[in-house]
Amino acid sequence: MRLLLNLVWFFLAGFWMALGYAVAALIMVVPIVTIPFSIAALRIAGFCLWPFGRTVVPAADAGVMSGIGNVIWLLLAGWWLALGHLLTGAFLCLTIIGIPFGIANFKLIPVSLLPLGQRVVPIGSVQDRAGVAF
């Protein structure tokens, strides 16, 4: 079922949103100081291409610098990527078939706003570690 959801997601929203993250990664790689933002953008782009069956969890080793970096990210690229998820999710919710994909877009808004200090992991590994399903 996850494969089917991911394939439909890819064509409805995943490719276009991942393209937005790729553009953000290219922009962030130009100034050398923002290369960590570029890496985070590419990590989230991969998650955006194939989200079902994976989830985002806080990184245990994230420090103060990831919080400061998140503020910078939010100002430079996070707000327009979150806006893209919001608009795409709203349009997908106009049809009954698109509602689960619209909700998935809404769930990607927090990670698009604050990607540093987050890890993308398979859902099974989260269940094994924490004992709960996300």
Please explain how this structure is put together:
- The protein is mainly α and 134 residues long.
- It has one domain.
- The chain contains six helices and two strands, in the order ααβαααβα.
- It has helices at 2-29, 35-49, 64-92, 99-107, 109-113, 123-130, and strands at 54-58, 118-122.
- The protein has a two-stranded antiparallel ribbon.
- The longest helix has 29 residues, at 64-92.
- The protein is globular and about 45 Å long.
Helix and strand arrangement:
Layout: H1 2-29, H2 35-49, E1 54-58, H3 64-92, H4 99-107, H5 109-113, E2 118-122, H6 123-130
Antiparallel strand pairs: 1-2
Helix pairs in contact: 1-2, 1-3, 3-4
pLDDT < 50 stretches? 130-134
Give the total of domains.
1
The CA-CA distance between the termini, in Å, is 17 Å
Shape label: globular
Question: Which H/E pattern describes the elements?
Answer: HHEHHHEH
Residue share in β-strands: 5-15%
From the alpha carbons, calculate the radius of gyration and give it in angstroms: 15 Å
Strand order of the largest sheet: 1-2
Percent helix among the residues?
over 70%
In total, how many beta strands?
Answer: 2
**Largest sheet features:** 2 strands, antiparallel
> How many alpha or pi helices?
6
Which structural class do you get from the secondary structure elements? mainly alpha
Mean pLDDT: 86
